[in-house]
Amino acid sequence: xEKMWAGRFSKALDKKxxxxxxxxxxxxxxxxxxxxxxxxxxAMLGKQGIITREESEKIIEGLSQILADIDEGKLEIDMExxxxxxxxxxVLTKRLGDLGKKLHTARSRNDQVALDIRLYxxxxxxEIIALIKNLISAILCQAKEHKTTIMPGYTHLQRAQxxxxxxxxxxxxxxxxxxxxxxxxxxxxxxxxxxGSCALAGTTYDTDRYFEAxxxxxxxxxxxxxxxxxxxxxxxxxxxxxxIVMMHLSRFSEExxxxxxxxxxxxxxxxxxxxxxxxxxxxKNPDMAELVRGKTGRVYGDLFTLLTTLKGIPLAYNKDMxxxxxxxxxxxxxxxxxxxxxxPMVQTMRAIPENMYNAAGRGFINATDLADYLVKKGxxxxxxxxxxxxxxxxxxxxxxxxxxxxLSDYRCHSELFDEDLYTEISLETCVxxxxxxxxxxxxxxxxxxxxxxxxxG
Length: 457
Known about the structure:
The chain has 457 residues and is mainly alpha-helical. It is 61% helix and 5% strand. Helix 10 runs antiparallel to helix 11 and helix 10 runs parallel beside helix 12 (324-348).
């Protein structure tokens, strides 16, 4: 295939150099965005009289047919082409003759690829947001079922205070809701059209960049043509948001892995989202969660790949920027893959409330509530803290727990203790009396569920 830029050169590109230079294997997935962008560009050229209306309509019809042929499998993308832009233009020229050569008037591949990437990421961001909402919906289903299921809450992976299973799950729902907001914010900043920036300096043609931007659903145009072709911070911002999504999924995965172990046994994953061992017949491994945890590093790597690629590039366009796509595509694919598997894994996992409750009954996680009991009777908190610390030490020495320590032993530490302390430090009381906004009490859990339900629609 003759290169569109071949006029300047007296000999053909070396085959190895041609393969090295080619990006068709990577950017071919943007064929839809490339053709859509070209149709809007042809419409603008016709509107402005840069080409005739009839020519514009014929080009748009030709591009529409190319898109349909690719979608229907009638036209196979040529992997010998340099990139998706050259492939589409070459097919159009074969079908329309010299008219096809007019399409590239008043634009460059530099602004064309910048446009394609924005269109592509806008589409993918919508899909990723929908997948995050699916996961939040799965979390909400579990949370609604376990609004009063008591489990130990942890700090430093040490049992800390009693909470509900719903409260723990909803924390991830809140994180994911912010991921949606982050991605949406990034898309809003990205939704600026670069087309018409041309190679870097704009064009001498009387173009209407606003018309073209509006046809493609952009909010505005890039106001600086150099910035329009050399900017990839919108990729970095979205990839950063995707990395945060993966961080949240990785933390959630770690908890699922711990909870499903025999040491915890707070949950059991459905058989359809676990695997067995090749040698140990008793094993039920949380491989999906482990893979999500592992793939998180991959998405981090994609972000750092692009950051490193861009860090030393002078303005405007440089061929280094061709390396943006592999990292960007991999980031998108990995996040979608992980979200797609995570939602049904959460939806189908089975909580084991009795194990959670038994674990909450050990570890003195009602100690803070015992201190609050003394504070409510007039003792300063620091003094109460010391008294309860001494009581915990005594329980450890006697191999018992606060709930079972006799009242006579309590009164050796303070006369403020009375029979009502046992009700105050029961796990149920400890949870339900957490009445502060955002806490683990039932009223708060209901509000959290309501908040997230509005987000998923």
